[in-house]
Amino acid sequence: MAIDTPFVELNNGNKMPQVGFGLWKVDNATCADTVYNAIKTGYRLFDGACDYGNEVEAGQGVARAIKDGLVEREDLFIVSKLWNSFHDAEQVEPIVKKQLADWGVDYFDLYYIHFPVSLKYVAPEVRYPPGWFVDGGSKIEHGKASLESTWKALEEVQKKGLAKSIGISNYGGALLLDLFTYATIKPAVLQIEHHPYLVQQDLLTLAKENGIAVTGYSSFGPQSFIECDMKLAADTPLLFDHPVIKKAAEAHGKTPAQVLLRWATQRGVSVIPKSNSQGRLQQNLDVTSFDLTQEEVEEISGLDKNLRFNAPTNYGIPVYNFA
């Protein structure tokens, strides 16, 4: 039985499901089936990206769900992102059209700048997705596109109907304030790493004050990065095992994952968890039907260490760390 989830109204009037499905690290071989099953479970938002390398397969899952009458295109909220190698203004629209073709849809509901960094252009016919390295190996070569010129190109994408909303991902407060000085269309959504070890309350407040919705990724903190061979500090227990999270889970008869997702959604942040397990698919979607106490919310927020996992330097990519 499908589970209904609430919507967030964006600053342009469009409505975005508060709980979606993130496609990062979803295996190509199972992606189409995973997306199909998620739609059948009740997911309506799918958060993809060029860099994930699975947009064709995700689109196949969507097409099958539509063909089988589970949903219509208008029922879905499909998200994608502009990779760093395509920041040059003249490359933005062509790559958006390629990504739309990969998905098999006519428009994105939301399209982000993935990272606030320009890399040298790599043509799709040379290598796709291009990744961080211009040579496909280890060489970083920065591009010359300014964030302003890239944002202006995204505004044109929205004006042409290729994306209903546009946003930014992995921007800190300074870059957000700078964007406000040149944006004709204000971003609808800011996507950031967000979990109890990285609360970023000042950034959340800035976004809210300016009418920008926030989506948090990696809601389970270090859990998402174990398979990336990231070494965790001894004083950084997995959030699923943290006494504060386990205590709240036991108090409400929920899983630690549900508590972490509810902590975010109860504070107005949208979430995009993923799972290959049907049981966890349903649990992750059902995270707005209970409320944590104010004391529990504050105790979980108090775990903040300003600890960021998704920084390129953590993967040996000498680019920068986010502010």
Structure commentary:
Pfam families: Aldo_ket_red. InterPro entries: AKR, AKR2D, Aldo/ket_reductase_CS, NAD(P)_OxRdtase_dom_sf, NADP_OxRdtase_dom. Keywords: Carbohydrate metabolism, NAD, Oxidoreductase, Xylose metabolism. It comes from Melanomma pulvis-pyrius CBS 109.77. One of its GO terms (biological process) is D-xylose catabolic process. The chain is an alpha/beta fold. The protein has a domain of 215 residues: NADP-dependent oxidoreductase domain (TIM Barrel). 34% of the residues lie in helices and 11% in strands. It contains ten helices and ten strands. Strand 6, helix 4 and strand 7 form a beta-alpha-beta unit. Helix 1 packs parallel to helix 2, helix 3 crosses helix 4 and helix 7 crosses helix 8. The chain is globular, with a radius of gyration of 19 Å. The termini are far apart. The relative contact order is 0.13. The model has no long low-confidence stretch (mean pLDDT 94).
Rg result:
19 Å
Remind me, CATH topology of the domain at 7-221?
TIM Barrel
Named CATH architecture of the domain at 7-221: Alpha-Beta Barrel
Number of strands: 10
**Approximately what portion of the residues adopt beta-strand conformation?**
5-15%
Order of helices and strands: EEEHEHEHEHEHEHEHHEHH
Q: Which strand order do you get reading across the main beta sheet?
A: 3-4-5-6-7-8-9-10
Category from helices, strands and their pairing: alpha/beta
Individual helix count: 10
In which range does the helix fraction lie?
A: 25-40%
Main β sheet profile: 8 strands, parallel
Protein name: Aldo/keto reductase
GO molecular function, one term: D-xylose reductase (NADPH) activity
Keywords: Carbohydrate metabolism, NAD, Oxidoreductase, Xylose metabolism
Binding site for substrate: 114
